[in-house]
Specification:
Layout lengths: L2 H15 L15 E2 L11 E2 L5 E6 L6 E5 L7 E5 L4 E5 L7 E9 L2 E3 L6 E4 L2 E8 L16 E9 L4 E9 L12 E5 L8 H4 L3 H10 L7 E5 L17 H18 L9 E6 L1 H12 L6 E5 L6 H4 L7 E7 L4 H13 L4 E6 L6 H11 L8
Parallel strand pairs: 13-14, 13-15, 15-16, 16-17, 17-18
Antiparallel strand pairs: 1-2, 2-3, 3-6, 4-5, 4-7, 5-6, 7-8, 7-10, 9-10, 11-12, 12-14
Amino acid sequence: MNLKSITIALAVALVCGFSYAQTSTEGVKEDFKPSPLNQPGQEYPQVNSQGYARFRIKAPQADSIRVSLGLGGQGGTRLSKGSDGFFTGTTSGPMDEGFHYYHLTIDGGVFNDPGALNFFGSLRWESGIEIPARDQDFYALKDVPHGNVQQVLFPSKSTNMQRRAFVYTPPGYGKSTKKYPVLYLQHGWGEDETAWSNQGRANLIMDNLIAEGRTKPFIIVMTYGMTNDTRWGGIRDFKIDAFQTVLTEELIPYIDANFQTIANRNNRAMAGLSMGGMETHSITLNKPDIFGYYALLSGGTFNPDELKDKVKPHLIFLSCGSKERPDGVKKAVSSLKEAGYNAVSYVSENTAHEFLTWRRSLKELAPLLFRQN
């Protein structure tokens, strides 16, 4: 998938997320429960066993409220005003399982839902709602040994500022002199370095996989990919140079100097979702001597011609949701295998350009990393 195709796919995902629909409750089960992502003590928003979402907002002075749900969800739910000053409404259809951003439009102004927790996406802090997934156990908070997610500030001469990263270290890290491989994991457009641990549950996915003995323990580094310096509509003009310098010449040396890493290509991977996948594609092709494992999660594909005459990666992992472009991912992996590359495809069933796709992708990717070591 080329840059133009990635841009079109992202645009379709965004447009689909904000289409308008009328609310209908016919055939909707009345077994609604508070969303897992509500503020403490808040009853709304609620979700039911079918995946419908119900919203209730107190705004006695308002005339109209619409709920706009983000990537992959049912959008444009109009709420009805009651005599008590509360606006209430239910999505017109079941939403995809997993996490979704949303916001309220109240008399033309954009606001967050006071009942929900906030997450950084679409260039702003948005409300979040979680539709429980049938396979949610793999990212659930369990009674297992837990790693640690810490914030680090690292100097960046190229941008003349201190930059931030979040670093996941696995259970047991620091209790011995053991060193670990590292995955550099990138967010998508409109998001930042908080996305993978907050929306993506990356630390809980790793904790659970490690506890089950399904993956080697490794460090994950998540930093801002400078994606939001480009506004929507201009993604095709995004230049990788500035972020590539920050990542490869400043962040990686900082991590290797301050954490117990195995500082070589064979123990270093890069992955990214959506636009972060686009960044991963460019940087791994430009710097194949730095990364030994590549993963694009709803972020395009590789082809044998662009990899020709470069040091061969140990693994190329390509994934997407079944509601995206799975045939393109499967075809790309088939071509890579025919050319002699260790390539793996994964398609998340019944999901689109959304975090359940990427949570599942990380679950499938992690056990494949650093096997050659």
